[in-house]
Amino acid sequence: MYMQVTGAVQPQNGKISTLVNQVSLLQKKFADCKPSLVACSDVKFAFRFAKDAIVSQITWPAENSKGKRKLKETCVICYEDTDVDQIFSVDGCFHRYCFPCMKQHVEVKLLQGTMAKCPHEGCKSEVSIETCGEFLDPKLVEIMSQRKKEASIAVTEKVYCPYPRCSALMSKSEVLEYTNSSFVGGEKSGARKCVKCHFFFCINCRVPWHYNMTCYDYKRSKPHPRTEDKMLDSLAKRKLWRQCVMCKNMVELAEGCYHITCRCGYEFCYTCGAKWKNKKPTCSCPIWDERNIIRDGRRR
């Protein structure tokens, strides 16, 4: 890459060629610019120098009420002059905002159920969870970590610990690997060891591990569902929710037709639960109801 940027070698790859051209255009904007080859182990220092250079151009010294001089910077969101040590720099893009603005931005994104990205328009840099501890409550940092893990695991791969006091999220491959390190025969038996609370549970029944009993025998010995399962079933019936037979997640129809495509990809009829094949129903239920299509006098 260094040889290509300096012009010693012509790039062969189209994407790299475009990138080199962009670098060349940026170089022309400087009065003096000489590329330097930096070892991989020193890249972090290059980023730090670049960050310090940016900060030096947008800050200025100012006296506070006690007569002490401190560096100030204007937040481009609220336009308040803020102490530099209360300014947050987004990793990867170096866009800078005050702690209160970043706190509000991240909290709104969490309420929307998404991960926070840089507030700068068009910037796609992700806000690092590790650095959010500067302005966020530790509980919110933990929620962000959980959201990131949830997003990284496919719906069909997600496993939650059945113990109410734990409920840790794991992937099927993660919990199997962890179980195999301390338990023989876990893959065949269905026994899994939670990576957080370290208790065993059944991957098939999603209940605490039933020692010396098959899943069939366990279900026969426990014909009555648990209290929390009863509450969920009661709520589902009252709200007319449906359960996906593939991933067991609950689905609610807010509006639209009765053809449901679950997050796991399974397609079924919301009325009776019958599977859809090749985008066609296998049941004779109506595909839609006018009450679910019309809202506030307007068709959706």
From TrEMBL:
Membrane topology per record: Multi-pass membrane protein
Subcellular location(s) per record: Plastid, Chloroplast membrane
InterPro entries the record matches: RETICULATA-related (IPR021825)
Entry's Gene Ontology BP terms: plant organ development
Domain of life of the organism encoding this protein: Eukaryota
Key words of the record: Chloroplast, Membrane, Plastid, Transit peptide, Transmembrane, Transmembrane helix
One of the record's GO cellular component terms: chloroplast membrane
One Pfam family, short name: RETICULATA-like
Coiled coil region boundaries: none
Family: Belongs to the RETICULATA family.
Name of this protein: Uncharacterized protein
